[in-house]
Write a structure and sequence with these properties.
two-stranded antiparallel sheet; 526 residues; elongated; mainly alpha; single chain; 21 helices
């Protein structure tokens, strides 16, 4: 052990005397700091976002009037057509009438929606965007997409029936739009919850959504006074998602003929619902809501900056690994170690420990730099708790700890290519080859993955690229790949299971380290 420690100290002394390590540390500071300042500079553009809903309502009023005129013209033309002798012209004109009628009713409802928002005092606020978007989607779905079959418009009676259906659908949406006014006039979040409870009490008894919301109300009651009303839209959207998911799961749980097992969609709903419930029960939804309306999300900024740092660190570690053996062989300095009474395996272990130490230290440096710039420019608050789903239930972990664990996991992906560089260094005695090939594999692998994704290739093939499993997941999610994430700003579309990722990466890393050690320990190395 003493010999190993002495060899390790010797290797650390060599690497610390290299200018490249200092250059990388300075480069990390400049790059991370510069990117953080650029993101801070762009914050002013997003923070000016606002919509004049009164002006939008006037636009849709004009649009509805134009379509109403088209409907009248089509109706007058239909009066001159014999639907028996000239059925083709009648059907075509009737289709045009129905199309313009749908556009007219849709424009009228959206205009009513925007007038309701403007009248509630939210004219220049984006705090209700999610609720407004959801209502607009409901309008389009009811008027355009709820009728799967093409309507029969071959007779005046069939045309009248289709007109009645459209008018009835439009009228049924007006109470829902009116209910938004109740929500938007709330002064506090608690008042907003009370108003929403009244809405569910009136419209949600048949499907059980009122009882579900009442349970959610109990969970949020102790946090209600801590939520600012401008953060409420995020929470109300999550409540609606939880209620609709729970209703869907209850329906799916009902026995049905020919039903076996649990579908993937049911499992996804169950996972998403469990995560939302955890956020409600433990109050993490409060910090999530505050972060959701911030012009620049400090979590996203931290993920982005950490990701940039890993690329610089990977380049340095691969260069150190690729030159760790071949450069010493070329200048002859390794001969003094080979002839010494020390096993080559210990020499190799000392070099491996040196690389692991440098990589871990630089990843920690990257993390601290990122935390410093993110916290200084965007605030240290609202990082909150990261909610994840594992082993059949939801869990929570402080986000800063999750980001640190993720960054350390990135070291595994970097270690794969460092091990390959060491193996090439021992086998070829050529530093240029030992560094260039792993570099091409590391950065080229990500380029190949992007090309495969854009080309629609089989995702399981893309999963075999090591950077897919760990490194790239950090850039987009900032979390370990062993978890599934369906929280507000974390989702995963992984094409393989987390268990596959871990087994694959660890086996590959073990194989590469063994190859590197075997090449170094051969007798003909000198």
């Amino acid at each position: 052990m003493r010999k190993l420690l002495s060899l390790y100290q010797n290797e650390m002394g060599k690497v610390l005397r290299k200018v490249s390590v200092l250059v990388v540390m300075i480069l990390l500071f400049v790059i991370i700091g510069g990117c953080a300042m650029v993101r801070k500079g762009t914050e002013s553009f997003s923070s000016t976002y606002s919509i004049d809903y009164s002006e939008m309502a006037q636009y849709y009023d004009r649009y509805a009037k134009e379509h109403a005129e088209e409907v009248s013209a089509a109706r007058m033309k239909l009066g001159t057509i014999d639907h028996v002798n000239d059925q083709e012209t009648f059907v075509y004109t009737a289709s045009m009438l129905i199309t313009h009628l749908k556009d007219q009713k849709c424009s009228e409802l959206i205009s009513l929606l925007y007038k309701t928002v403007a009248g509630s005092g939210a004219q220049y606020s984006n705090m209700f965007d999610s609720s407004i978007d959801k209502t607009v989607t409901r309008i389009y779905n009811e008027l355009y997409y709820n009728n799967d079959n093409e309507p029969d418009l071959s007779t005046p009676e069939a045309l009248a029936e289709e007109e009645l259906r459209i008018n009835t659908a439009a009228e049924s949406l007006k109470p829902e739009i009116d209910s938004l006014k109740i929500l938007m006039t709330a002064v506090t979040f608690r008042e907003l919850l009370d108003n929403q409870l009244e809405v569910y009490k009136e419209y949600g008894r048949d499907d059980g959504s009122y009882e579900i919301f009442n349970e959610v109300y109990g969970w949020l009651d102790k946090y209600a006074d801590d939520v600012k009303v401008e953060h409420s839209d995020y929470i109300m959207t999550r409540i609606d998602k939880y209620v609709s998911n729970t209703v869907s799961l209850k329906r799916a749980a009902e026995p049905a003929a020919g039903k076996h097992g649990v579908s993937f969609s049911e499992e996804s709903l169950r996972r998403e619902t469990a995560l939302i419930e955890y956020a409600f029960r433990h109050g993490t939804v409060v910090t999530d809501a505050a972060r959701s309306i911030a012009p620049e999300n400090n979590r996203e900024t931290m993920n982005y900056l950490c990701g940039i740092g890993t690329f610089v660190i990977a380049a340095l570690v691969i260069m150190l690994a690729g030159s760790s053996i071949s450069s010493e062989m070329n200048n002859g300095s390794i001969k003094s170690l080979i002839i010494a009474p020390v096993r080559r395996g210990k020499i190799f272990a000392a070099k491996g420990l040196m690389l692991l130490t440098v990589q871990t230290a630089l990843l920690l440096y990257d993390y601290l730099l990122t935390l410093l710039f993110t916290g200084t420019l965007f605030g240290f608050r609202n990082f909150g708790t990261l909610v994840f789903y594992a082993f059949g239930q939801a869990h929570g972990i402080p986000y800063l700890l999750a980001a640190l664990l993720s960054l350390m996991l990135d070291g595994l992906a970097i270690g794969l290519f460092a091990a390959a560089a060491m193996a090439l260094s021992a086998a070829t005695h050529n530093t240029a080859v030992s560094v260039t090939l792993p570099m091409l594999g590391f950065f080229g692998g990500m380029i190949v993955e992007v090309i495969m994704q854009l080309g629609g290739s089989e995702p399981y093939i893309g999963a075999l690229i090591p950077t897919h499993n760990l490194l790239n997941l950090h850039i987009f999610h900032g979390v370990p790949s062993i978890f599934f994430f369906f929280a507000a700003d974390f989702e995963t579309n992984a094409s393989v299971t987390p268990l596959f990722s871990w087994i694959y990466v660890l086996l590959l890393l073990t194989a590469l380290v063994w190859c590197a050690r075997d090449a170094f320990c051969r007798r003909d190395i000198t």
